[in-house]
Specification:
By secondary structure, the chain is mostly helical. 55% of the residues lie in helices and 5% in strands. The chain is built from 18 helices and five strands. Helix 9 packs across helix 10 and helix 12 packs across helix 13. The chain is globular.
């Protein structure tokens, strides 16, 4: 016999509609037919999911299972904000359900931080930066952003990895009153990042599937949108030639912030265009702790290389990356060994540093316990001590 979950049908429908989740998405994730889900939402059908089916739905909607039994009026699901779509996508119609869930998750994470700060009597810095110069003055915008954030070239050059530089940039941006948090479950082609403007702790969302250099670039790119008081969704970064004027500008400013033209010229020295090869690009990328793609674009924008050389270098970079990926796959196949995961480190890289600090302070004050933090981070409790130890060093 099946044990059925006598859930609140209004709540089931309310959550799906409020989070803007399509039936197609639910069917794809849970494997339940749309007709069945419609009956579960229909008050007059008398049909209910089994306990396991209801748990699968709750996981798909990213809510606690118990929430399906609550009244819809008691469920705190915020309206999705109005955001301009600056993406360039090959398909005319894209199911944004996964992205809508990601946005909803980050809104909830930000609310959690604000609530915990209030309970712990901690101050929240207001976001109020503005730049009073024309949008075509990329160098001036970049200079003001670097100065306002206190980005130090000497610190940048001393970073031992692109991850270390990513954490550095993420931290200085958050210290300036922005909530920077990663989202999961969304293809990078659908969204690489988004910005949600607010006078109190505006949001920068980063796709967690991206590598650290790409995340670093996205942070600055989205910060430019926030300075322009824009709420947007983006997927065209770094080496793109977007038709969207605002995206072109944000990419140009982000490139100049991370690799200032003056610094690039100094590091490049007397190299001529014919001498600039993949080794030179790799050396510059290591120096600035950015991706090779960013260096190529900066060389193009600064006139150090032309379009043909740029295209050749980008093709070589992509070929190199693909060869490395295939070699890693072959190694795992032959040895049966993968790269060991560092769960506490993954949690730190994905979650807002301000939220991580709030967990640490809240744990010491008894506001959070291990179970709370484990649930919020989505990791097992045996990883929490190491997570706390890492955060304590900040």
């Amino acid at each position: 016999m099946y044990i059925y979950a006598r859930i609140n049908k209004d709540t089931l429908r309310f959550i799906r509609e409020k989070k803007a989740i399509s039936f197609d998405y639910v069917t794809r994730i849970t494997k339940f037919k749309e007709e069945k889900i419609v009956l579960w939402e229909n008050d007059e059908s008398g049909k209910f999911p089994t306990i396991n089916q209801a748990k699968a739905i709750a996981k798909c909607y990213r809510i606690p299972f118990a929430g399906l039994y609550m009244n819809a009026s008691d469920i705190n699901v915020k309206h999705l904000p109005q955001m301009r779509n600056l993406r360039t996508l090959p398909d005319a119609v894209v199911d944004n359900s996964a992205l809508n869930l990601a946005i909803s998750d980050i809104l909830s994470a930000r609310d959690l931080l604000l609530e915990s700060r209030q309970a712990l009597k901690e101050r929240t810095v207001k976001f109020g930066m503005s730049i009073n110069c024309p949008d075509d003055n990329v160098i001036q915008w970049a200079r003001e952003i670097r100065n306002s954030l206190g980005i130090d070239s000497n610190v940048q050059y001393k970073c031992q990895s692109t991850r270390q530089f990513y954490l550095y940039i993420r931290n200085v941006v958050e210290n300036a009153g922005v909530f920077v948090h990663c989202f999961t479950g969304v293809d990078t082609e659908v969204a690489r990042g988004f910005a949600i403007y607010d006078t109190t702790m505006p949001i920068i969302g980063l796709n967690n599937h991206e590598r650290c250099p790409a995340k670093t670039f996205s942070i600055i790119h989205e910060r430019v949108h926030l300075i322009k008081r824009s709420s947007v969704i983006c997927n065209d970064m770094i080496d793109s030639f977007s038709a969207q004027a605002e995206e072109v500008f944000c990419n140009a400013v982000a490139g100049e912030v991370l690799v200032p033209r003056v610094n690039l010229n100094k590091q490049l020295g007397s190299y001529t265009q014919s001498e600039i090869d993949l080794d030179v690009v790799s050396s510059l990328a290591d120096k600035f702790s950015v991706s090779k793609e960013v260096i190529c674009r900066r060389l193009l924008d600064s006139g150090k290389i032309g379009q043909p050389k740029y295209a050749m270098l980008i093709a070589a970079i992509r070929s190199q990356f693909e060869n490395e990926r295939k070699a890693a796959q072959e190694y795992r196949k032959l040895t049966g060994k993968g790269i060991p995961r560092n769960i506490p480190r993954e949690a730190i890289d994905q979650n807002s540093p301000a939220l991580c600090r709030a967990f640490f302070h809240g744990y010491r004050e008894g506001y959070f316990d291990k179970q709370d933090i484990s649930r919020y981070l989505g990791v097992k409790q045996n990883h929490i001590e190491k997570f706390m130890w890492e955060v304590s060093k900040w």
